[in-house]
Every structure is written in C-alpha cells, then in structure tokens.
Amino acid sequence: MDILFAWLFIISTIMVIVYLVKGLLFKRKPALKKAGIAGLFMISSLILFSIVSPDTEEYLTEDTSETDRLEQEQEEQEEQEEQEARDQEEQEAREQEEQEAREQEEQEAREQEEQEAREQEEQEAREQEEQEAREQEAREQEEQEARDQEEQEAEEEGAFATRSNPVPLGESVAFTETHSSDDGTEYEARYEMKITDVVRGDEALTVLQAENEVNEPAPEGMEWAIITIEGTLLEWDKDAPYTVLHLFSVIDSSGSEVPQDESASLDGNLYLLVELSPGEQIRGRIAKYMPVGDPSLLELIDLSGNDGIYFSLTE
After folding, report:
1. How confident is the model at residue 304 (pLDDT cuts 50, 70, 90)?
2. Which of 81, 109, 180, 296 is most buried, with most CB under 10 Å away?
3. Residue 12 pLDDT
4. Which residues lie closer than 8 Å to 245 by C-beta, 6 or more apart?
C-alpha cells in the first residue's frame, strides 16, 4: 500500500509539472486547469499516504535513527576501549608499584643480611681479639711466673750475675752467645767480661767536657758515669772475625730501667765495633747517666729475650 501511494504521488507530481509547462509556455488555459487538478490529486495522495501509512515518519527517520545508533555504539565502543586502556595502565602501574615494593623489600632484606653478617664478623673478630688477649695475658703471666721462679731459685742457689746477685766490680763472668747469619746458620761464642773502673759525678762530667766540649751535664737528678769494660773472646766457631756489638742499660735500685734520652761523646777508647779473634781482648769505655748516688746496676742486654747479665758499679 505504501508503494501504491508513493507511485500515485510521483505520477501526480509529474502531471503537475507537464501541465504547468504547457500552460505557461503555450498559453493554454485547459492545461493550467489540468495542472491544478493534478496538483489537488498530488496533495490528496500525499494526505492519504500519510493517513493510511502512519509508519511513514518512522520510515523517513529510520536511517537517521540507525546512524545515531551506530554513532552511539561507536562512541560507547571508543569509551569502552578508553576505559580498558585506562584500566590496563592502572593495572600496569599497580604491578610496577608492587614489583618495586618487592624489589625494595628484597634489597632491604639483603642489606639486613649483610648488616647482620658484618655484625657477626665484628663480633667474632672481637671475641677472637679477646681470646688472643686472654691467651697473651696468660702467656705473659706464665712467663712472669717462670722468671720469678727462676729468680727465686737462683737466689736460693746463690746464682751469679743476676739482679739480686750482680757481678762485683773488678770480677769477670763468662757466658755463651748465639749469633745467626743471614742464611739462618747459628754460631756460638764464648765470651768473658768484667767492669774494671767506674768514674761518676763531677769527675765524670769533667772528663767528658775535656774530651768533647759539646757534652752537657746529665738531666736533673742524674749524674754521668764513665764505665770501663774489659772483654775477652774465649771461643768462636765461625770462620770470620767476631764483632763486639754489646748493648747495655742502667737499672736503678728500684729495679727500673733508666732511659738514656741524652748521650755523651767520648774521645777514643770506646767499647764498640771492635773485631776479635779467639783469645783477643778489648778494653774500652761507655758513658751512661744514673740517679745521683744510687747503687745502680749495668745490665748487658740479652738480645734473645732472656734475662741479661748484671754488673755492680760500686765496690
């Protein structure tokens, strides 16, 4: 039915156009009347088409509605894609944050483990140091006890050349020395030594300043002593000269070593750096200071770490 009315509308429209052209161009009034009739017919068909076919408006607007729907779906699709993209970005951001958080936790855990390991090492090192200190203290205690025991036994047995029983002035003592060469070979020497003379106080200072004017008085509370030493090489098992390299220290009456912060120069006849062969002798001098009037002792230092040999400087 809709098609029929459409065709009627089209035909009547064509007739209106044809009759209007004939009437206007050829001045024919009948043609104009027919054009009017055809126009009425066209209008009537349109009215009838509208009445009979109420779906016409929907038909005419159907394409527009479909386009709007498609556009709406397109917009919704785009919004959906945008939302999914945002959701994806948020998800990736959350995963990134979680990954960074895990890495931070792992890093902190590693640092904590390293800190604990360092603390453990430091604790073990402290314990090791404390253990070594205790062992060292125990060894020193044992060595001190051994020295005390030796001194006590020596005193009980009347040992000679000790601090409690020094070699008297003018008397000699024989002892054995062990020397090591550069290749580790050890050699033994048998040596005899005695103190033959001691000059102290003002007399010693006069001699020192007479031999070298740069020599100065001993520190306050001290006095110089010029000590004459005589040594004899008894035996020596190395095929080379024996060099005199003895070192001495001063021990005061309280048993303390007197530091020799100042030195004095002697003009020749020194007990130092003389080469000897078995049977040969050296007689030389050294200068030391000690407390004024104190019965100090002269100690021949044993370089192997054992107790030295003590000489009395008074008669």
Report:
1. low
2. 296
3. 62
4. 272, 273
User: Which distant-in-sequence residues (6+ apart) come within 8 Å of 173 by Cβ?
Assistant: 160, 161, 167, 192, 193, 194, 309
Query: What distances in angstroms separate CA 149 from CA 27, 139, 141, 294, one per listed residue?
Result: 166, 15, 12, 27
| Structure tokens given for 98 | 């979680």
Those residues with Cβ within 8 angstroms of residue 218's Cβ, 6 or more apart along the chain or in another chain: 205, 224, 262, 289
Label residue 180 by pLDDT band (50, 70, 90).
confident
The pair of structure tokens assigned to 109 is 């855990």
Interacting residues of 313 by C-beta distance below 8 A, sequence separation 6+: 169, 195, 198, 200, 225, 227, 290, 295, 296, 297, 298
pLDDT in tens, 105-132: 999 999 999 999 999 999 999 999 999 9
3-state SS string for 133-174: HHHHHHHHHHHHHHHHHHHHHHHHHCCCCCCCCCECCCCEEE
Render pLDDT for 208-227 as a digit per residue (tens, 0 to 9). 999 999 999 999 999 999 99
Query: Which element (helix H / strand E) includes 68?
Result: helix 56-157
State how far the Cα of 178 lies from the Cα of 187, in Å rounded to an integer.
6
172-312 belongs to CATH 1.10.3470: no
